[in-house]
Amino acid sequence: MMTTKRAMLLAVLVASTTGCLSSGGGNSAQESRAEPDTEAPRLERPAGVTITRTSFGIPHIEAPDFAGMGYGYGYVQAEDNLCLLAEDTLTVRGLRARYLGGEGRYSIPSNDAEASNVDADFFWRSVITDEAIEAFKSNSDPEVIAATKGYVDGYNQYLEEIRTGDHSGRHLACRNSDWLLPLTEDDMFRRYFRLAVLASSSVFVEGIATAQPPALGSVDAAAPDPDILGDMLESLDGALPFPLSRELNIGSNMYALSEEATRDGQSLLFGNPHFPWEKTERLYLAHLKVGDRAEIMGAALYGLPAVLIGFNEHFAWSHTVSTAYRFSFYELSLNPTDPTQYWYEGEWIDMTSQEIVVEALNPDGSVTEEVRTLYHSHYGPMLEYEVSGIPILSWSPLKAYTLRDANAENDRMLNQFFRWNQASSFDEFVELHGSVLGTPWVNTIATGPGKAAYYGDLTVVPHVTDELATSCATALSPVLGQVMPGLPILDGSRAACAWGSDEDAPAEGVFGRGNLPSLTRSDWVHNCNDSYWLTNPEQPLTGFASIIGDEGTARTLRTRLCITQVEERLDGSDGKPGELGFDMGNLQETVLGSQVMSERLARNAVLDAYCNPLTDVLNGLTQSGQGEACTALAAWDGTYNLDSRGGHIWREFWSRINPLPVDSPVKWLVPFVSTDPVNTPRMFNPLDPLVIQAFVSAVQAIQDAGVAFDAKLEDIQYSGVHGDSRIPVFGGESFEGAFTIASTGGSGLADNGGYPVLFGNSYIQTVTWDDDGNPVAEGFVTYSQSTDPASPYYRDMTEAYSNKEWIRFPYTEEEIRQDPAREVIRLARPATP
Prior knowledge:
Layout: H1 4-18, E1 49-54, E2 58-63, H2 66-93, H3 96-100, E3 105-108, E4 113-116, H4 117-127, H5 130-138, H6 142-163, H7 185-196, H8 205-209, H9 226-234, E5 251-257, E6 268-276, E7 283-290, E8 294-301, E9 309-311, E10 316-321, E11 327-335, E12 338-344, E13 347-350, E14 352-361, E15 367-376, E16 382-383, E17 385-387, E18 390-393, E19 399-405, H10 413-422, H11 426-436, E20 442-447, E21 453-456, H12 466-471, H13 477-483, E22 489-491, E23 518-521, E24 524-527, H14 557-571, H15 584-591, H16 597-610, H17 626-635, H18 647-657, E25 668-670, E26 682-684, H19 689-705, E27 717-719, E28 742-743, H20 749-752, E29 755-757, E30 759-761, E31 763-769, E32 775-781, H21 796-802, E33 807-808, H22 813-818, E34 823-827
Parallel strand pairs: 2-7, 11-22, 27-29
Antiparallel strand pairs: 1-2, 1-34, 3-4, 5-6, 5-24, 6-30, 6-31, 7-8, 8-9, 10-20, 11-12, 11-19, 12-13, 14-15, 16-19, 17-18, 20-21, 21-23, 25-26, 28-30, 31-32, 32-33
Helix pairs in contact: 2-6, 2-7, 5-7, 10-11, 18-19
């Protein structure tokens, strides 16, 4: 087997003797989605591309231009994650069913969407049209276009090497598959579009792919009565799926700490997305240097040749998923004689139709076709939507629903990040945030050496004021407003109900920076996925449209812990030694400390009620195990560190009471008070029958799973993406108020006898600056850089993360040169004849 080191040395030798790596095949300007190219386009290799790998496989890519940078980026990402990127190419082309089987399933862990491969193909072909691709391309900066083309060439270069038999033993899951297709420029823009609509259209994959008009004269497709629907929704346990609730499936934590919050007056930044450990919403760490035009280091979602969260000598920044909605529904009144016509401004308007053919591979190897006609209004795609079998948005003979997606119209997204990557100062970074306004669905914090702490939710948000939402409300609006506060359903029959606009907005239909929340302070700002309201409790942000977020409402337990950890460090009540304020060491200790807010607020009350013989209120409800559970719970150190024992009892218990509303008097005896939002609600009530039953059920579940009550976390919680390698993982779940996140994605202990971590802490960076102004950064890619089990970078960072061995991210030339694992590959193209 050729090792990575030998392969790199061979590439250097080939480059130095021939001036190139290999020749390419024929070129095709545009592929047919149904009949994709199987030959790689001719490769245009930029000159002077150097890739230096340091420890843990971190690539440092240096090129004279953006095409070269993209080339190097595409090559190393393919080297590390070829099969995953190839599957995503099938997805965005709408070819999953053709190659992976019509009976297969498709899921987006980030937003909980799930559908058959066939439905996924219909969805993506319906929304990523040639027109959508062209809109993204036509407004993209030259740097975006150049890097995109370069990425395609770099990816295809590595693919050609695989096809010719190089890199033996690598990418066994796909290297001989017929779906290992070459990449095209359009594929890249399809991927960009897919990521843009991650928090909007793609939540409704199945609902858009299967939406069909009712047959004329249909009587069983009538729209549900709003009052009846309201009663049905109230009967549901728990919140509706992301993004139809404020408790998001994916999230992040982040702090920007300025001079008044740090020990030495130098700024600090912590960023930590909580994203899936599987599929292409993983994050990849790289260091990019483009001539004298840009130098930046940090992480990006797979397939984006830029840095989305990162740092350099001028600034550092991070993101968290915002609570703002990126879309609105429109209710259409239909022609009783034609359910594909809707009333708009006094006349019947025809929906546009799109006939799509999807091929599906059958188990016997045959291929069949399915044809569907999907419909769009002038707002966007038609859709149907249900939750737990309850039809919420139905296409009835008289009413139908359509969706307008602001990020499907956001052709500035790539420009935002590429311009940030080229910014030469902290002030320019902040200015670009509002002037480009292309950030799709995330809050941003930033700071720089000696600079303030900045926060902004300057994102792409439909311009739906509270007044517009009220004046254009439908009969369904108040019903859904109870469970989806802030998400508008507007009357689609009136032009007056179209999205508004601001003079300072870069495009029609969205809010400008003057109507979006931001804050700059000399101490600290944070976000942990609640709205902007308590970015810093000393200066609440208020007065913004409900579609952006809620104000004056209870914060999640994780947000309360996020705030509390900073406040306790600044006043010394956390008990940490030394001066008040943060430095790199105690910041890292805090963010990986695995504290749990629900434990802080409620464990003593539970122990007093259920585990004290004088006050035991369980009254024999447990068959056995109560005493052992109580002993272990009392001895638990209150964290989810690897050597902690008994914490799984708390998690199983809290998972069973989590669906209770946060302001329920059943749960908390002191309700939420907007004037004391960090400390309320409080005084947990363990005496309610529902809470008692939750504890009884948790004890029984642990017994049924055969797990000891005093088991160590390291013995039951592990990476769920490294096969049979049980790499222990610390951390807890967001719903219980854990700060350090390790999530199973909903599978409980009783289902598998352990907690396989499938998403949570992903890319982590802690950044400050030295006396010379150079960035000092440490962190992790928690699941490691590669998804290929044969790669040396498949599990190495995960093991370091498991041991809390912080990894230095080498940035300066000296740091890179001194790295003991340094390997260099130079890519060049031959001179023009």
